[in-house]
Design a protein that fits this description.
CATH superfamily of the largest domain: Glycosidases
Strand order of the largest sheet: 1-2-3-6-7-8-9-10
CATH architecture of the largest domain: Alpha-Beta Barrel
Mean pLDDT: 91
Number of strands: 17
Oligomer: single chain
Amino acid sequence: MRNTRFYLCIALISVFAFASCKSKKIGTNTSKEELPRNSTTGPKDQFPEKKTPPIAVHLQPLNYQLPEIPREFRGVWIATVANIDWPTSPTDPFEKQKNDFLKLLDYYKSLNFNAVILQVRAAGDAFYPSNLAPWSKYLTGKEGKAPETSENPLTWMIKEAHARGMEFHAWLNPYRATFDLKTELLSPSHDYNLHRDWMLKYGAKYYYNPGLPEVKSHLTSVIKELVANYDLDAVHFDDYFYPYKVENQSFPDINTYNQFKSPGQTLEDWRRQNVNDLIFAVHKTIEATKPWVQFGISPFGVWRNQDKDPKGSPTRAGQTNYDDLFADPITWMKNGWIDYLIPQIYWSMDYELASYRKLNDWWSNNSNQTNIYIGNGPYKIRDNADKAWDNPREIPDQISYTRTIPNVQGNAFFSAKSLLIKNQDVAQTIKNELYQETTLPPAFQPKKPAIIDIPVVLDITADQTLTKIHLEKPLDPAIRYALVQGASELDQLADSEIHPIWVGGMRARALEVSSLNKKYLAIRWIDHYGRIVQTQVYQVP
């Protein structure tokens, strides 16, 4: 019995040895590529091969430095109130409104602009679904009526702006409650109908009473809802704080003043304090919700005239921020409550009462370490009593002058249709002479330092339609977007077309861009504050 078992074992060992040798011989003559892609058995006389997991191999960046991309703010205001710029008509189908918006974006993208400032709250209303305001009549033709689409218009607009590498600044008019006195057309959910005690009639409009604590709380909630729910780059206020003065009328807030003033506080100082309190509250709300979202304000172009204050500008403006609108941008900047200021200097270079040239100098000297961009008024071109605006070079000359001023980092233009509908020749001059190249908007420093994981690229693949960038692990949410360039030669990279890929904090594992199919690829990783985290250059395998 034992001998039988012994010989049986010897026979089995011989069979297995022969099979093993035969398997090795076939394996050496058959490449992996010849096996079926999904085969699990291989040839019938080959044992299954257990594959080991592939080891991740990082694509090593080249030791090659790209020059810095210039920084300059190039913004355009898109006014929705009274359908100034967009939508062209509130009764247009939403699909037409979308097409018109894309035409606006594409036009300004072609001029190498890098930011849009879109009015999302014109008069106690909203261009987005809100629990705090009705849908705007300027979007749907009737206040409170939702647009006929399953899309969120604001989400879509932000996405389209970002897809073109443009920042999206959400512009709100905080205190204007109505644009006229036709209150019977207001939605039942408008604050005029819900909180009549908040409203003050002045001239041909109603305004939120800035002196009421509940108004400040409500407006702060509006900002929080907007910032929390949307991928904004900035919250933006315009120049309407206390309203511009109406002849022979007084703003009717004397009762509120008597109720809330501090001992010895003048009416003017109390009003300025009300605005300051709102600006501070909005600043703190944004900081607590999404600290990377900028807060910018575009005040009237004159703080104070020198005849009122020796620290004021050499101007003779009929109304000013400090004395008439009760807005004090100097205080906001000194306290760090805002990230940027765009004074509206809508006058010609040497206008006698308020010179563009002199006001550029004044704001530069009073920037208080805040980013200053200049607001320009191309809507006046060939349409103003000041004959300087008959010269189509007025705006190009203004931009050129602004670029010579320290502490000023760009321009914004009011409004979108003024360079699209009427003055395309001026727009082309701006592009050909001043905006020839793509730039990035200015970056900001976070209040608290943060460590950001630098993306590691595993592989880059390209076909006829897409270039795919595969990453070792999901992106750090602090990465906001990437700028990708491709070229056949290294020395061509810096001048090649820039393709933005906006990820908005998503933990993407791979990025896609229209196929570059080039030998070399450059990726600039940019964080929520606009800072370039790192620039990587690769030779595509």
